[in-house]
Structure formats: C-alpha cells, structure tokens
Fold:
Amino acid sequence: MSNVLDSVSDPIDFYNISRWSEGYATINKKGNVAILPTREPEKEIDLMELVKEGKERGLHAPLLIRFQDLLRDRVRRLNESFASSIEEAGYKNIYRGVFPIKVNQLHEVVEEIVDAGKKYHFGLEAGSKPEMVAALSIHADSESLIVGNGYKDSEYIQTALLGVKLGKKVILVVEKLEELHQILAVAKKMRVTPLVGARVRLLAKGAGKWATSGGENAKFGLDTTELVAMSDILHEEGIPEALKMLHYHVGSQVPDISTINRATCEATRFYARLYQMGHQLEYIDVGGGLGIDYDGSRTSFDSSTNYSVHEYTRAIVYNIMEVCDAEKVPHPTLVSESGRYIVAPHSVLIVEAFGAIEKDRASNVVRKTSTDHKLVSDMMEVRLTLNKKRRQESLHDAQQIRDQAQSMFELGLLDLRSKAKVDALYWQIAAKVVKLYRGVKYVPEEVKELEISLADQLLCNFSVFQSTIDHWALGQLFPIMPIHRLNEKIDRHGTLVDITCDSDGKIAKFIDFQDVSQTLALHRLRPNEPYYLGFFLTGAYQDIMGDLHNLFGRVNEMHVFLDEDEEEGYYIEEVIPGTTVGSVLTHTQWDTKEMLRRIKTQLDQAIKSDCLKPSEGMRLLNSYEHILQSYTYLNFS
Structure:
C-alpha cells in the first residue's frame, strides 16, 4: 500500500470504500466523504456539511449520524432478495422476516424498520421481557410475526400470550424443555392456545468471533432427545398443531456461505421429521448470521463475508426446497433474523482528533553544544552518514547508541538533555531508514516493526468502550478513515487513542485489503484546525452495548432524511443531545443535588475564612452546576 495519495479519485480505492460500503459511501469533489442513503449518485449527503450543521446546533463531536433512508433501503433489499430467490427457484411459499430488537433497541431505529417493512409484513424478534413489551406496543400488522426468543419466565410468557389474544402472530420459541411446561400452564390460565417454536441445536456451527453461539454446545436450544420429548408432550396435551416453527441459529456474522448451506440442510431435516410426526409446522426460522463485509475483501475472514445477500437468500431457498421435496413435506414460510445486515451500515460515528504524538516531528531540531555527551556526537554522525547503501548498518549503529544512552541514564551517568537529544536523533534516523526502504521488494522485519513504532498516535475525543465496544472486546474491525481533506496528499500513518484513562482505550488494528493493518493512513494535523474521522458500519450492537467507562456517556446524535424539496436534498429530522455529566452520575447512584449542596458548603467555608471573595464563590458554584449539565466529552469550542 502506497502511503502518498495524489488525486481525489485515489482514496476510494485506497480506503476500499466501494467494497465495504456497498455503494452507500463515496468521496465528492470537495474531498469529503459523502453518504448515498439509497445508493443513487444524485442523492449524496456530505458528512462535513452535517458536522458543520451539527456544530451550529450545539452538537459537537463525537457525533453519531443516522441515515434513516439507508435503513429503509436495507429492509427493501433484504425482502426483495428473498422474493427474487423464491421466484427464481419456484419455491412454493413466502418470506416473512423479523428484525431482532437486540441488535439496536433504539425506538427511532425500530420504528423506522417497522414502517419500512409494512409492505413486506416484516416483523420483530424479542429476546427478553422488555423487548417483548416493546414489540407488542409497536407491532400493528396481523400478517407479520413476533418471534419470542431467549429464556422466559411466566411474565414474559403472559406478555407474549397477550399478543396472541390480540390477534397477533406471536410465536414463543422453546429454548429449554422446562419452558414448554411453563408456556402450557400460563396458556391454560389465559384460555388461549399458544403458538410455539422449537429451537434446535445443530451440529453445524459458524466460524469467526461468534461461532460459539451455534453448534451442539450452544447456550440455547433443544437436542434431539428433548425435541422428541417436546413432540410427545404436545401430542399428550392434544395440541400437536401448536408447534408452528422450527428455529435454529448458526451464529452471528457468518463469514462462509458453506456454513449457511450445511446448517440449512441439517435444520430442514428436523423440520421435515417433525412435520412427519404430526406437527403441521408453518415456518422455518433460520435465525441470524447474514454477515457484513466490514473490510470489503469478499473472503471468509472474520470481518468479511465471501457471499452477497442474494447468494445468501438463494442458499436458504434452494437448500430448504431441496430437502422438503425429498422428504415430501410442504415448503415452509421462511423467516430470518438478519439484524446486523439491516442496521450496521445506517450510522456513522464522527470523531474529532485534537492532537497527535509524532516521534519524528520536524520541530525536534538537534544542535550540539559543548556540554553534550559524546553519545550525541556519535548519533549525529550516524545521521550525517546515513544513505541507501548502508541504511541497515546505520540503523543498527543508532540502536546501539540509544541502548548505551539508556543504560548510562539509568546509572546516573547521562544528563537528561543529552538523553533527549539522543532519542530525538534516533527517531529521525529511524524515519529516514523506513523511507529509504520504500518501494523495495524485501523489507527486513525490524524495519517493518520500526515503521509501526514510528506511527503517530492521534488523540481522539471519544471512548472506545462506549462507541466501539466490539473492537475492544472481540477485536472486531470497522472501516475508519478521514472524512475530509481527501483531495490532499496523505503522508502519515497512525493509531487512534481515546480520552479514557485506560491503556486499552485505543484502536491499533484496521481493515486492509489483504490483511489486518496496524496503522491507518492519515494526514498531518494542522494547528488550531479540527480533523475528523468517520467510523463506519457501527449501527449494529455498538449503539446499545456501550459501557460507561470513565463515565463517558452516549454521544450526540442526529437523524437525517432525504427530501428533494429541501435545497440541500435532505433535512435533519431530529437531534438528540448526548448524555450530560449529571445524567451519568445519577445513573451510577450519585445524587447531584447533594453534590451541589456539599460544594456550596465548602465554598461558604472558604468565603468565611477569606480564601475566596463572595462573587468569586458564586462564579465557581455556577461553573460547577454548569458542568453537571454539560456533555461528558471534551469541548473544544
């Protein structure tokens, strides 16, 4: 990968935008990243314009921008892909997908998906009691499903059966056999016949970071013995028809289509056998698993997928049809819970870099003085004689001098000023050695490691733990890149560090077309000028799973809609200020009124003892109160 870009067209390939964005992002003539919510070139939205408008409304970075039209486009694409595959195969049933609320529980997101899915009778999946309560309230389509997953108590079951009594298609998926007894008992009290599903544990399981959510040792589901027992119980109760769905889940973010093929065939055998045992099942729910190509490599790597959405839907349709035809059972209605596919691309996190640590910065001009130690002269000699022919030898000489300087410093034999000069000269030599190896076919490993060590550290106003929790916890890679200045040369590499007081608060792994990169191509920061980075494909899980590490709360947020009647072609439908200092303190059981009272008491005492003037004391109290109402992140305005 070249580290210098010369034209505005290069960054699209350089950052692999066209592949990981699937046509939802590009770079415009201004050198800014633009979002295309419907993938139509004439409907692009400049991210820097949104950042500017956000600042005018008091919304500073970190800023989360949601593109609601993109959500709608994803719902459309998924449903139309299934419809196309069904028509192509001659499959004798339909698709009725559901959105798993756990992937993004925010009301605005769920509401938009439900509205976009109306024409497709697209439903919801709930994995907990609160999610079931939310699903019942927003669900208004008697043709669409509510699928109830997760472990259940009597209140969860009662809530779901309320939906059945209201005429909704609420299917309670049995995760363990004891739940079936609970469901039947509550249903008898409520005088309603339940709609149940059986989640089966398959031998087939996914690969990658979420592989353990499937397979025979999965947390949820019934084994074959329990499945037979469930069948017997329903027959004994005289309601074999209550079993409506066969459910399975092979794992989230499945990178390899062969896993989808194996799991679908295995699960359909269970469906066919249960149907032949007297249960007139209507649905197969294939669960989640439809992945996002985060790095654009189109491979079976953890952060990629080697298939398209259409190949995925064809695999589901054809494999289920083939097994059903062989077993002579009806084709079931197809259900999927493809939450990541729908929501991941719809939001972009904008982060501001406010400083950089550069080891080879040009301002470190070293001039020798009479008081300098001889090691300074030795290092200056290495720098003076460095050339292409003896680049590796010079590097070794510089390393030896630096090591000697460190040892002498630890023994108290080297003054601090001389050590500082030796260190500055070393990094200047290292930078020049790396540059002398550019374009060479073979680069020694030590030089590659040196290039990584030379990378800038960009200080960024955000929290990894709040906004990219999967990167910290699982090593998940997200596309990250500057959102402006992309018509300028990019001649720096760096890593990103957040503002938390934690050494893990950093991003030092980035997507690369061929492998994982340990640095990101960047511009040099300009004094007193903001530098913005975009974190893309973060709409799944990151919004809701963020952690309050260091009490950094939710970020500022804006929701954007396309509108051809607007001069810019879009409008900002809603802005949601991020969490305040007072809010996160209250969330962690601090009483802000009591805190104010204590500070006021301390200020009163300081005034009485003549440490402060009354007017100054009031200003300090007002300042403290104002901070309680301010954004938890840094404010550079």
Remarks:
- The chain has 22 helices and 21 strands.
- The first helix runs from residue 10 to 14.
